[in-house]
Amino acid sequence: MRPELPQLSPRDEHNARLEALVRAPGRVNPTPAARYDLVVLGGGTAGLVTAAGAAGLGARVALVEKELLGGDCLNVGCVPSKALIACARAAADARRAGAFGVRTGAVDVDFGAVMARMRRLRADLSEHDAVARFTGLGVDVFLGEGRFVAPRALEVEGATLRFKKACVATGGRPSAPPIPGLAEAGYLTNVTVFSLTSPPARLAVLGGGPIGCELAQAFARLGVQVTVLEAAPRLLPRDHPDAAPLVAAALREDGVEVLTGARVSAVSRRGQATVLTVEGEGGAREVEADALLVAVGRAPNVEGLGLEAAGVRFDPRRGVEVDDFLRTSNRHVYAAGDVCSPFKFTHAADAQARLVLRNALFFGRARASALTVPWCTYTDPEVAHVGLAAEDARAAGLDVATFRVELAQVDRARLEGATGFVEVVADRRSGRLRGATVVGRHAGDLIGEASLALRLRASLGDLSATIHPYPTLAEAFRKAGDAWMRTRLTPFRRRLLRGVIALRR
Question: What is the pTM of this model?
């Protein structure tokens, strides 16, 4: 009997439907084929895309998953978190509607209804990742713990799957720092937090990265008293430094207490409360909460896979070692997604899965380093980035310039009360785009324009010449292009143009 999963709590109709679709209780695994063209270990985004794509191309495919198909994204990541964020944003917009001349009165959040909506939508979307869908595509789906037993063989539930090629796509899991008392006190992670049916009165969030900031703001907007503790000097330490103050200000406006440069040295219990001892510039203090959410990083799922038997090198912290073609030290085994990638994003896992299909099945030479991978943190304002930061471009020997457009200069943003900025990094002479950062509402949607421009090696001149609908937030990219174009109008060129105009009079 399989152990109960926190993703399936509470046991309501929505989670029952989720389980029926992506876990299929009582189902019997198929009889293995003599040999598979591809065996995929892991049923998250990377594994599902690899398996579906290979089957669609005519390969004989086996997919192995020990928990729920859909992986983190569907069950404990993108889908539930964005459902929660949408409800939290609706509450925040209702509270601030007075600024638009709309009177709403007091805002009453039904936390149970918010979480039930999330579970319902998650179950709705799980149809795309259902066991029945993949068997219908011709994939042999094996539910159970898979483990390599030889360089070209894997076992699951007593069955041996032999393969020509394999893909390790087991993803990652939340990690916890070695803080004295943390394990004994107990804590939530992204795996367990979405099983809440009632809100904690006080929530402490350990970690001011993307997950910590997103959930801290969401819970605060839903009526929870939230404290964020980040050891670094600022929130979102891996993002644009100018994004952090804007996000911190937004969190504080929503009622979040933001503590940066805060190191948690111990965790204990005091009655029903969790007590964190925090060391900072001002000395030590205590933060008391009814629940603690740990959001400080991810660890790759490499244990118990029998990777040693397959001759696949790995590191417990960095994951499976792959080359630029996503091939492991066993030339018959590839890897994709969080288990091997520095980019812990669903869309990166999807893109890498497509590279595995080309390289493993068709002798392709597609390189992971050639991928243009954007990312977004879904706070309000959102923070999105793609390509090189200015300092990284200069370190690579590129002569670049940055062009920044404050959203206050964009009419649509002013009409909607949006704040933030668009900043692009481009070659000083040619204007070729090298990177971009967007901070503001809908930043995750806007960054797609910069991603396409990077992939097509487009220039800021191209963005300047592209007609954007008025009024839209995307006009910020055209304005950045216009700013670069103005740098091309040197005094000499200006005199030359004046002379041409004078001759035509």
Answer: 0.95
